[in-house]
Structure formats: C-alpha cells, structure tokens
Amino acid sequence: MNSDQFSYSEPQRQTAFPIARPGYPLIFAAAFTTAVFALLGLTFLALTGLAATFFICWFFRDPDRLTPRGEGIVVSPADGRIVAVVQTDGSPFFDGTCTKISIFMSVFNVHVNRIPYNGTVTEVMYHPGKFFNASLDKSSKENEHNAVFIETPDGKKICTVQVAGLIARRIICNIQKGDNVIRGQRFGMICFGSRLDVYLPPNSRVEVSVGDNVKAGTTVLGGLP
After folding, report:
1. Is the pLDDT of residue 66 over 60?
2. Does the active-site annotation cover 139?
3. Active-site residue among 76, 135, 194, 204?
C-alpha cells in the first residue's frame, strides 16, 4: 500500500489481537467466572462461560487502521452499514442546512469510534434518552447520545454523534472540549450495537450510498467543500 496515500493516525499496537481498554473488566470477569465453574465441575456452565469470554474478546477487538491522506477527505467514524444519506435543516447538531450520514453498527462490527477529520473539539454534549433500535431514524434525536463538535483548521464545522441502540447501554467518549484531534484517531466506542451520525457542511461531496459497508478511519465518506 502506498505510504504517500495512507498512514497510521496513531502508533501501531504491538500485539496480534488488540483489544479496546473498556473490554478488559468484562473479559476478566467472564474468564474468572468460567474458571470457577470449571473448578466446581460444572461443565456446561464452564463451556458457556468460555464461549462468552471469547465473544467479549472478539467484540472489543480494536484493529489498527490505515487512514487515507488528502485535503478535505472525511473518513467514517464507525464500522457498519450506511442507513441514511440526507440533506437536513434545523438539526440540533448543526446550524442551518447540512448533510447527514448515518452508520448502523451491529453487534458483529468493530465498535471503536474514530475522528472523521482534523480539527479542534469545540464541544462535547451528552444527552440521556431512550433506547430505540439504532437503525431507526428517530433514534438520532430520541435515544441516548453524545455529540462531538469539531472545527476544522479552516473554520468548517463537523459534528459526530454517538447514538445508543436497543441493546447498547454505554457510550464511551475519551476526548473533551479543547482537544486537538486528527483524522482516524480513536475517540471512544459504544457497547453492543449502536449508530453514528455525521453532520457535514452543505455542498460537501458524498461518496457513499445507503447500504454501503464502511470501516472506521479507512472508508472515505466524502469531502469538505
């Protein structure tokens, strides 16, 4: 792969199977419970616990990603499937008309979220809410969500919103107001099925369609005007 076109936004992990930090407590708890069942001779429960431990490890996988270089390129903040590409007006996450791209993450997707474009975090706004199926459009406004507002070096506005889903009950965001962020950088995750909405300035170029599968930090959603 051409190093002039792609780069790692963060140092590569020195492990064959990187796992996101929020997964460690759950993995250790599942492994400990499995060991107790095994010592007690409860074979079925021990095997069930072992399967659960492996599933949790797999769910919290956090692979390194190569991010495309280039001026104006906006990358996907999440793995998943595009469920909406619309022009919207009057959104609480963007003043005026904007382009909204929605990505649905099933339990089978990598759930680590990444920054779509370089800039400065101007606000992080958490809002408690309901837990509708994240594939439904109403989940964007009514579900529990966390909005990250970013201003690019040339003054353009972008917003990425982590939306909890039907199963998800934990939104993790590791950045705060004033942080300088770069495209492809990890910034959080949502546990067990969810949605990411990206709000871009009007006239942004869109390179994805409903039904497309995308990868965080790697797939180009489009370009800024």
Report:
1. yes
2. no
3. 194
